[in-house]
Q: What sequence folds into this?
């Protein structure tokens, strides 16, 4: 039996690494420093030591609200967005200087350095535009202050991403309302000298083409899901070569980070290949078609960079923290940032259940010695997101406390091809719930968990699926809602440009489909809420107003079922303060242990639960 993970250990932040870049000066990556409230900085390994390049900055972009592409490194230059000053800085010859002026109008992201032209090509949002921010691709002069926000190269599309330059050719991808980039997007190319000659290379209606990349000799690569999966294509000299495989080999553009892919010299492309929910490194020889997998055992590949024939890969693992690994042309592996093995961590198993629209994948986490433990079902956000098998401190916590955990990639989740994603169109609140139920039955009917002690939990969009499951099914013996969306109309009233038309495909166009929004809102079905519930709510939440939490608590009280409502002063849509995070986790543990008749953890205060019969 494993030792229960202490509350402090579950709450302790871990430093994270992401977005590797390789240049003449060494290999660079972003490091999020937990003890500095997650401040993001750039680190460089120059072959002998690791140095921090931006100790006075928080390297973050806010384009599309979620950001991405906050820095780039090329030649002997590093450019980065500093969230503290909202300016772009350039590091050259050991000196930092700004290349944009202080202002509130513009946001930049997806930075791409072009040293030979003394330019940064970037995606820019103009927040003076109405009725929503205008997205454009601009050129910033490395030797000026760019007081005008940069020279506009491309405008007119609703969204731009992935600008990349080779010589005088610019490639990018774009998409239009009401589509999300994973629905319909096009890869485009134009001349930097005359951007008006833009032409489409790939993608279009019902095809998502994205993440163009140039090889050193001018070949253009991109990912497209025209076969039903994001596969890679390379165009050189008028001929296009495809690597068509029945798996996704790219990920959606939730943020403007670079793809987990890189051209390696002129003959190969390194990318992620997602099989059964697991992402592994794949190296495709474009000329011969041969594919190898030189880094076995990963959970996913976060990012890839190449310098000459050498690869740099940030990988996640099921039982240790993320690593940054150098792969030499001979295949030798060197850990630049070595992932730490996690004591007591257990790799999950991938399971498939028969859902009403097709197979449904989940990750099942449980101790080998556990005999029909209580089951905690997790519903991810997005909802077009996905969870993989990478080590998760929160899941480890619950397993160490005697629970099995089922992490469900319901219909709409990414990494399983377009058909799997498209299943949720028009069906959010229906099919995601049915898929979760199917996954639970697979576990309980195979004797892997106690069918009488199944709880479901989620936050935000995952909280919506949780609430819908509680008001439309009788599978769950307990529910935990953390700032769950109870009224779908809130998604229309309080959103941002990147997601303003997202509900169109998931539910229906607004306001024409207003009745559907109402019918699928848990707040309109509270008379069916008969499950013991813990409701966690920030009192400053603008997305899910506190009155929704109060209404849910009243509905459970009316049935006589156990209920606890815990509210947090000063917290909004998501709990960020350590005191709130601690109380929320302690409340969850105490609630489930009491409701399920488990021994109460000595390190957790006993939560007051109304209507609980002892």
A:
């Amino acid at each position: 039996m494993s030792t229960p993970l202490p509350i402090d250990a579950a709450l302790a932040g871990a430093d994270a690494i992401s977005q590797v870049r390789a240049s003449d000066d060494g290999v660079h990556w972003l490091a999020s420093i937990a003890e500095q409230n997650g401040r993001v900085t750039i680190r460089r390994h120059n072959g002998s030591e690791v140095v921090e390049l931006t100790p006075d900055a928080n390297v973050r972009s806010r384009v599309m609200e979620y950001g991405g592409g906050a820095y780039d490194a090329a030649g002997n230059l590093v450019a980065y967005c500093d969230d503290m000053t909202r300016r772009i800085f350039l590091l050259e010859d050991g000196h930092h200087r700004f290349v944009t002026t202080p202002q509130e109008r513009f946001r930049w992201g997806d930075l791409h350095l072009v040293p030979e032209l003394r330019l940064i090509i970037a995606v820019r949002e103009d927040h003076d535009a109405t009725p929503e921010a205008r997205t454009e691709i601009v050129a910033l002069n490395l030797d000026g202050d760019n007081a005008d926000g940069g020279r506009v190269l491309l405008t007119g599309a609703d969204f731009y991403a992935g600008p990349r330059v080779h010589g005088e050719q610019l490639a990018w991808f774009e998409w239009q309302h009401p589509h999300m980039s994973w629905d319909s997007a096009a890869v485009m190319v134009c001349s930097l000298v005359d951007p008006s000659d833009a032409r489409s290379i790939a993608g279009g209606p019902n095809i998502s083409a994205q993440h163009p990349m140039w090889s050193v000799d001018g070949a253009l690569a991109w990912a497209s899901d025209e076969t039903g999966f994001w596969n890679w294509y390379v165009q050189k000299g008028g001929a296009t070569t495809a690597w068509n495989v029945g798996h996704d080999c790219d990920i959606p553009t939730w943020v403007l980070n670079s793809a987990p892919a890189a051209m390696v010299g002129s003959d190969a492309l390194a990318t992620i290949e997602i099989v059964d929910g697991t992402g592994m490194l794949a190296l495709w020889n474009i000329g011969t078609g041969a594919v190898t997998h030189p880094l076995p055992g990963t959970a996913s590949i976060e990012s890839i960079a190449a310098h000459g024939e050498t690869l740099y890969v940030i990988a996640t693992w099921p039982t240790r923290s993320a690593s940054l690994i150098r792969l030499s042309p001979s295949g030798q592996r060197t850990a630049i940032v070595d992932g730490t093995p996690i004591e007591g961590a257990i790799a999950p198993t991938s399971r498939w259940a028969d859902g009403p629209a097709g197979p449904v994948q989940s990750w099942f986490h449980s101790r080998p010695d556990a005999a029909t433990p209580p089951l905690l079902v997790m519903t991810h956000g997005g909802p077009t997101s996905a969870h993989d098998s990478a080590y998760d401190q929160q899941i480890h916590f619950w397993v160490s406390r005697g629970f099995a955990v089922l992490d469900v990639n319901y219909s709409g989740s990414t990494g399983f091809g377009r058909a799997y994603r498209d299943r949720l169109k028009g069906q959010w609140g229906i099919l995601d719930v049915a898929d979760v139920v199917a996954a639970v039955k697979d576990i309980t009917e195979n004797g892997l968990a106690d069918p009488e002690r199944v709880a479901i939990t989620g936050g935000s969009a995952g909280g919506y699926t949780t609430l819908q499951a509680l008001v439309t099914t009788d599978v769950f013996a307990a529910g935990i809602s953390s700032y769950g969306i109870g009224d779908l109309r809130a998604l229309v009233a309080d959103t941002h440009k990147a997601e303003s038309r997202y509900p169109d495909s998931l539910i229906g166009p607004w306001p024409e489909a207003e009745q559907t929004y109402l019918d699928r809102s848990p707040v309109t079905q509270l008379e069916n809420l008969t499950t013991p519930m813990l409701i966690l709510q920030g009192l400053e939440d603008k997305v899910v107003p506190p009155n929704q939490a109060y209404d849910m608590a009243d509905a459970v009280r009316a049935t006589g079922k156990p209920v606890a409502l815990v509210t947090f002063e000063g917290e909004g849509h998501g709990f960020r303060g350590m005191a709130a995070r601690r109380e929320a986790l302690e409340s969850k543990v105490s609630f489930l242990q009491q409701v399920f008749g488990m021994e109460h953890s000595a390190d957790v205060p006993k939560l007051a639960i109304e209507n609980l019969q002892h």
